[in-house]
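Study this:
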Amino acid sequence: LYHILLILTDGVVTDMADTREAIVRASYQPMSIIIVGVGNADFTDMQILDGDDGVLRSPKGEPVLRDIVQFVPFRDFKT
């Protein structure tokens, strides 16, 4: 059984440490997280969660087991 969590957001992450911790924990489960950013907010933190620019780590320094997050800024594809 594999799960996909789809998150639609128009805002920024307000609890980055807790979010990173949750993603590291979730990386041990059979799941993927797709985050779609809608609107014109600053989605810089979402790029960090995506892990494309480096390994995402929990606040304690523990790395994700595997990259499970994909961030998509909807405005880049809205035509």
Remarks:
- The CA atoms of residues 21 and 61 lie 10 Å apart.
- Helices lie at 16-26, 44-50.
- The longest strand covers residues 3-9.
- Strands lie at 3-9, 31-37, 69-73.
